[in-house]
Amino acid sequence: MVVNEIFYSLQGEGFLAGIPSVFVRLAGCPLRCKWCDTKYAWDKEAGNDYSIEKIHKAVQQWPCKFIVMTGGEPIINSDLPQLLQKLKSLGKHITVETAGIAFIPDLACDLMSISPKLSNSTPNASKLATVHENSRLDEAILRKLIDNYKYLLKFVVDSQEDLAEIQKTIEEIGDVDLEKVMLMPQAATRDELLAKSSMVADMCERTGFAFCQRLQVLLWNNERGT
Ligand code: SF4
């Protein structure tokens, strides 16, 4: 597997925000979101080749129960089931962070943190935009992930206009537990996060969705390895 980085930090987002976690960032993502904050992990070769054994050993550097598989897009990696099985044998709690563009059954995953991509993520370049638009949202795949895993649904909000699209997406997925929906400000820097947080907080108060913080941006201004 191509590993972009492995590091120890606090989970910055989702219902487990604040929990010390080991992050395993796998390389490769086909979506190329406009505001992606991990562009350095897009390329399938953006990292070093690791065996499952080597990853298994690397995560044990820290006495930490929580592991976050992230990317890139980890769920497109065909070796993911075997890796998670191996990590699970250590008694770890495993979160998989995904855009929800692929489904793998029976993963040893304790929390599927799904972030379906809205049209606000579409890249400007027309060639990238076509690939992105064709693959960013598949309600049937999202449905399968939700049916098969403990999950949260995290939407990245760039402006007020995104709310209608979020509500339409939830409706199209169907039967979503609304208590598992989170709204997160689109922000690559601390200043941007602070500027957009009150707009998103207000949206959360109106809808009942949970506010999703981004501790890695707030505390470390999105520095790599946080
Ligand atoms: S899906 Fe995630 S990793 Fe991939 S481009 Fe979009 S934000 Fe970046």
Short description:
The chain is of the alpha/beta class and 226 residues long.
Fill in the keyword field for this structure:
binds iron/sulfur cluster, 226 residues
Notes on the protein architecture:
The chain is an alpha/beta fold. The protein is 32% helix and 21% strand. The protein contains seven helices and nine strands. Strands 3-1-2-4-5-6-7-8-9 form a nine-stranded mixed β-sheet. β7, α5 and β8 form a beta-alpha-beta unit. α1 packs parallel to α2. The chain is globular, with a radius of gyration of 17 Å. The two termini are 21 Å apart. The mean pLDDT is 96. The site of iron/sulfur cluster has 10 residues, from loops.
3D shape: globular
Tell me the quaternary state: single chain
SSE pattern, N- to C-terminal: EEEHEHEEHHEHEHEH
Helix proportion? 25-40%
Return residue spans where pLDDT drops below 50 for at least 5 consecutive residues: none
**How many strands?**
9
Strand order in the sheet with the most strands: 3-1-2-4-5-6-7-8-9
Largest sheet: 9 strands, mixed
Bound molecules: iron/sulfur cluster
**Gyration radius, rounded:** 17 Å
**Whole-number average pLDDT?**
96
What is the helix tally? 7
Share in β-strands: 15-25%
N/C terminus separation: 21 Å
Which secondary-structure class do the elements indicate? alpha/beta
